[in-house]
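Quick one from the shared queue. A colleague (R.T.) flagged Cytidylate kinase as missing a structural entry in our internal table.

Convert sequence to structure tokens.
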Amino acid sequence: MGLGELRGVVALDGPSGTGKSSAARRLAASLGARYLDTGAMYRAVTLAVLRAGVDPADAERVTEVARTLRLVQGSDPQRSTTTLDGTDVGTDIRGPEVTLAVSPVSAVPQVRELLVAQQRAIIAAALEDAGGIVVEGRDIGTVVVPDAELKVYLTADAQARAQRRTRQDNASGRTSTVDATLADVQRRDAYDSSRAVSPLRPAEDAVELDTTSLDLAGVLAALVDLVEQRGLRVVAVGG
């Protein structure tokens, strides 16, 4: 991939169900930039922890698993891949068992330290190679890339987020109900917002974008507008 139109880092933070992942991928693809789903990395570690039979609340053993696995997170927005020890786990990491256990695993300080270092390396390589990258997660603007050129914190009404997540799950073949998803959304919000290390919160200089009444096209249009306002879009002139 050659240099795209985006220059710098766009950090997208916020809870699940705000349209963050779909918008981040679409924004990166439309600007010829790279894309990093940091949540997939925490889910991959969680999958490895579960497969090893380790209690997600056992921080010491969780850290041991995280240190020994070989995790590779792709940065192509057209095909974001997650592999563990050479095996694609993109589908497995979205299962309900992983969703239930990812918050305690993500709260382990040593796990965050390991993954943040890896995330920063991916971002640095993307900036050198493509010129820009869209990074999504829960601590991008506050911890991973605090000097990102654009930080956006996506929010949405909990009910709307639960409905989106349920549609996504059912479309992917994972049977779900709005009530069950709403309970899961609220549980993860409480856990992620109250953890001691890198809690879910907007960066002080983040632009807050409420996506409750916006569809994907609306969220994407708002993000492109913010990118252009910051002067981060470079369009080649002539041939």
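The beta strands are 8-13, 34-37, 71-73, 82-84, 87-88, 132-137, 150-155, 207-210.
The chain has one domain: 5-229.
Added to the table.
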